[in-house]
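Continuing the batch. This is chain 6 of the set; chains 1 through 5 are on the previous pages. Same settings as before, nothing changed between runs. Recording input and output for traceability.
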Amino acid sequence: MSASMSVVNDEILIEEVRSRSILYDKSHPSYYLREIKARVWREVSQALGCPGQGFTLRWKNLRDRYVKEKNKYIPSGSGYEAVLPRWPLMGIMSFLDPYIKTRQTSSNMSEEPLSSSLLDDTLPTTSVATSSSSLDNMLPTTSVATRDGVNVRFTFAFCV
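Output for chain 6:
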């Protein structure tokens, strides 16, 4: 099958799905009812004149590709310049727009970088006591200065 023939078949499948909102609208009362959706997919199969269940997978692939292509053209704030869509089915699949929810992206970068003085104040320092007056003095301790200037001391004991 040639690529152009595939696009034509995809367009017919998309139109058949478009006319049956139960297959893409999660707010449809029967969207989560498997038996009813299976019956509707059989109707799509009959309308296309091809028996089988491969249409559900093809629809999922088309929908996923549409979402992926659509997300390429949403400004990310990264300075990336958007390019016009090249996928030939973008226009015909646009009926899905009200039913697709884009997820909020997040970043591991903070809005304001930490100053070096804050970093220096929060670094732990380790010291080992050399006095042998008590067991506590022989254990390694770590002191951490917090932002508000409070020193916190940790003592570690290891059993060997």
